[in-house]
Protein: Biotin transport ATP-binding protein BioM
Organism: Sulfitobacter pontiacus
Amino acid sequence: MHPFLIDLDKVSYTPEGTSVLCDVTLQASERRIGIVGRNGSGKTSLARVLAGLVAPSSGKLRINGVDVVKDRKAALRQVGILFQNPDHQIIFPTVEEEISFGLTQLKHTPKEAAERTADILARFNRSHWAKAAIHQLSQGQRQLVCLMSILAMQPRLIILDEPFAGLDIPTMMHLTRVLHAVEAHLVHITHDPAHLATYDRMIWIDQGQIVQDGAVPRVTQAFVAQMQEIGESDDFTHLPG
Ligand SMILES: Nc1ncnc2c1ncn2[C@@H]1O[C@H](COP(=O)(O)OP(=O)(O)OP(=O)(O)O)[C@@H](O)[C@H]1O
C-alpha cells in the first residue's frame, strides 16, 4: 500500500514545445475527486497523463506506486479512463467482445474473460446486450458499455473525462447513480461543479496549473465567481489558445 493513490511531483507536459501542464504537484487518495477548469485549461491532458497514455515531459508520476507510463501492464490494474466520447474507445462490433478485450489484456483466459463479461452485464441488468451490435446502441448506452468494460477490469482508479457530455437528463441521472455505487476511486472532470456536490475534494486547473485545491464548497464558490466574471465580459479574448 502506497501513501498516496495519486502522486505527481512537478509534472510538466510540453508536447511540441507547447506548455500544456506546468509543474503540477498533487498527492491525493480521496475516493471522489473532481477537476474543473475552463476550455483548454489542461484537464484532458492531465487525465491522459494520469492514465499513463502520454508521458510527462518532466517530473514524476505514480498511481498506487506504479509508474503507469513505463509499466503498462501494471497500469491496467491501477487506472482506467472513460473518455467523453464513447466512440473514441470502442474497438469491437459487439458488447461482449468489447468488454472481454480488456480482460484478455489482463491475461485472463478466454473462459475467465467470458465469465467476467457475463457477470458485469448481469450486474447492470444488461445480459441481453451481450450479442448486441454496439453501433446500434445510443450514445448513453455506449457510454455504459465503456464503463462496464472498465469496471470489469477492476482498476483502483477510474478517470472520467466529462462523462455526461451529450447525455440527456434521465441517462445522466442513471449514470450518476451507477458512478455513485462504483467502489473504485474516481477522478471526475467536468465543467459543471454541481456534478461534484457530494465529492471529497475539488481541483481547479487553469493554464496547466492547479489554482485551487480543497473542499468542494470553497473551490466551487471561487470557480463559479470567476467563471461568471469572465462570462459577463461577453467576448472570447480570455479563451486560451
Ligand atoms: N499534443 C498536443 N500538442 C499541442 N497542444 C496540445 C496538445 N494536447 C493539448 N494541447 C493544448 O493544450 C491545451 C489544453 O488542452 P486540453 O484538451 O487538455 O484542455 P481541456 O481543459 O480538457 O479543454 P476542454 O474543456 O475544452 O476539453 C489546449 O490549448 C490544447 O490545444
Q: What stands out?
A: Residues 97 and 130 are 8 Å apart (CA to CA). The chain has one domain: 6-232. The mean pLDDT is 92. Residues 6-232 form a domain with the Rossmann fold fold (CATH 3.40.50.300).
